[in-house]
Amino acid sequence: MNTLEIYDIAIGIERRLSNMYHRFSTVFKENPEVHNFWAGVASHEKSHSEALTLSKGYLMWNHPSFRHKKAPMIQRSDITDLESLEMMFKECERKVKRERISLQEALDILLKIESSELNHLYNRLIHLSGFKLSQKPEDTYRSIYEHMKFIKSFMNKYYRGNLPAIRVDEYADTRPAPPPAIPGALGGKISEVISEMSYGFIEGGDGRRYMFLPEDVSQGEWKDAEINKFVEFSVMDLPWGPRANNIRFKS
Q1: Domains of the chain from N-terminus onward
Q2: Which of 30, 37, 54, 113 is most buried, by the most CB atoms less than 10 A from its CB?
Q3: pLDDT tens-digit map of 156-207
């Protein structure tokens, strides 16, 4: 299974999740709060499928050779998790189609899916491409962290089952933000280097993720690019996302 096939499966699952949660919103339409919750979760999943689609396109545009390569961040365990999730989700879909389920049964399904490896894989696929999706003004896109907080808040009020609660902190962004020493420059640290593909990523002090290539290094050499090394850099805002250039390594 190559990288783009993994993207396609993940995109398909997010879309089907959106459809199933939308179905729940109609099943529980008598209760406005419950209806709005399911409609909101359905909207989140739809935006996640769109973000993965954009991320896949960004990866294909910048690195067309990935079409036939295994992703360096995608391990065999990720593929196994994805296949297991696909089987679990199909069973959930069959249950929803066979019978009218209760709210607690619907929340059990939600917890099983949202506590799986799907959201961790989503984050890895988004970061793999370097694509950064900004928050929309209308708030239709939410990070996994915000998505999980939204679900947990509802669960605390309505869930009466025995499944473990969602651990929201697992999805929090705790990246450091070192200040730049040169006026006008950004500070950050190298978070990933794909040597065989000759590109990498920098975690900026502003919380954004910047892709860079060997020609973007202005002081030092490409071989000096190591994970966790602090850097200063300038920014190019491209249509498909931010890119670092004029990179200087800090001792």
Answers
A1: 3-171 (1.20.1260), 186-249 (2.40.50.140)
A2: 37
A3: 999 999 998 888 887 776 544 444 445 567 889 999 888 777 888 999 888 8
